[in-house]
Amino acid sequence: MTIDEYAAWAASVAKVDEHPSNERLSYLGLGLAGESGEVAEHIKKLLRDDWLDKAGLIEELGDVVYYWACLCAATGQQPSELLEASAAKIKRRISEAASR
Question: For the chain, which domains are there?
Fold first, then answer.
């Protein structure tokens, strides 16, 4: 399954279209923030306990991807195109930093 196929599937599960209500966008954004917080919680526990629940972290990362994919669909963005744009932006920043 490609990232674009996954996003289409996730959007169908979450009943997201390209014109979501403010309430639906808020729900998805808060879902992403909440799942990101759970990822951070695993990292915090790694620092505290010197042990990583890798399976739990991976599960939470999957939840982050789900909400991210739904938000991509809600804004009419293909995830693959967003990833390409993000990579180009980071490459520009690295190049700019190296030329300083």
Answer: 3-99 (1.10.287.1080)
